[in-house]
Amino acid sequence: MKKTIAVVLLADFADWEVARLAPALRAGVMPGREGAYDVIYLAPGAKPVRSLGGLCVVPDGDLSALPAGCAGLILAGGMAWRNPEAEQVAPLVEEALRRGLTVGAICNATLFLAAHGFLNDVRHTGNTVELMHEWGGDRYTGASRYEERQAVCDGGIVTANGSADLEFTRLCLLALGADTPERIEEFYAFNKRGFYGV
Length: 198
Hints:
CATH architecture: 3-Layer(aba) Sandwich
Largest sheet: 6 strands, mixed
Radius of gyration: 16 Å
CATH topology: Rossmann fold
Order of helices and strands: EHEEEEHEHHEEHH
Shape: globular
Strand order of the largest sheet: 2-1-5-6-8-7
Strand content: 15-25%
Distance between the termini: 40 Å
Structural class: alpha/beta
């Protein structure tokens, strides 16, 4: 039985930020190859959530606990990471890190991690270090570990800014061992350059 990657979706999530990652995990990075993981979606109260693009997702579960057989936790970016319902995600992140699971966060989800002190001891990135300070206040003490890069992986945490969905996908796939590094790099290069390399 495959292990599971749990993807957290909040209201007004950014459709594109996990749009490459989830299929690559579930269906494989190369056509015709089986994916390494099952992917499930979690949302507050297990209620349907709508993306910024209007996509309505019926989640597989709520935010009460990580599912059995969970191998990683992915936080999709979006506009609700400052809302009260987002606070339900912090215990999931704590549990995932305690169990040594990969945690991925992109765009505003990185700011949520900063606001809860999860990035203080790891190299990380996000939209800007100024926003990390704004959201995190005194709880964010990791500015010296902030890197102005598209995506960063350190200490089991993958972070990326909102324009880096492909780089985020690449680092998450590598961190999760979703395929060989060579195939993951081929996947990244193809999606970055396209058929014609322009």
